[in-house]
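Dear colleagues,

As part of the handover before I leave the project, I'm documenting each prediction I ran so the next person doesn't have to rerun anything. This entry is a single chain, and its sequence is reproduced below.
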Amino acid sequence: MSENTEFVKTEQLLKTKKRSQIVDVWRRLRRSNTAVIGLILIFIFLCMAIFAPVIANYEDDALKMNVRERLQSPGIGHWFGTDELGRDIFARIVYGTRISLFVGIISVSIALTLGGTLGAIAGYYGGRIDNIIMRVLDVLLAIPTILLAITIVAALGASILNLMIAVGVSNIPGFARVVRAAVLSVKDQEFIEAAKAIGARDHTIILKHVLPNSMAPIIVFATLKVATAIMATASLSFIGLGIQPPTPEWGSMLAGGRAYIRDNMYIVLYPGLAIVLTVLSLNLIGDGLRDALDPKLK
């Protein structure tokens, strides 16, 4: 009973401490000007993705070809101009935001789920299990991420689902290593020993005690990897292995407009800016979170 009571008290103290830490992290994050800029930028892109049907018409503006209005410069009727097929570039960027963010978030979720599971198991149990898992992942880690994604897409075929799988699988080794390192840093602490002492099962300890107390580096890494996934999505679409036309996607928009870059630079300028600003905002947020979650900076 005394051990059980002590464990409950420890859990309550951890929950109270966690709430105060979240408030403290948010306060320090708001003090970072670059992180605030990143939050504002990503908020704008999220609003564009959520309210895309309100901002522009998908069928008429983003998909429908209008040869009479092709290659029009930016103006009142078309804020970002029109492409080589007369489609509104602004509308295509707005709907491309949905695809880029969706693919980025889902692919990172896949990598985090699978890689995090493998990393948590390897870090918690150690020994032979750790060696087997990490050596297998080292083989994948030896292959460049984009090359592995290209190989998977080429094998499965070009589609949104296969693109998410490819980008997600290619990022599994990185997440496994980060989660393993985070688990190793907390698995020998007193509250973990207390959970073992009262007979808690391994999967319960990992899910309820180990992972929640090692989330700081995982959150930062995941934020940065969403930016990497968006870049990978655009890269694969640019070479024809990602989102297929006429679906609006920033990488495919760059590929379609590269033939007109000399005379109509705006065709590739705005999709390129969308990629740059999205990736920049996520990197700024990731850097801000890293500083806010670093206990040495408290």
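The chain has one domain: 2-62+73-297. The radius of gyration is 23 Å.

All the best with the project,
I.
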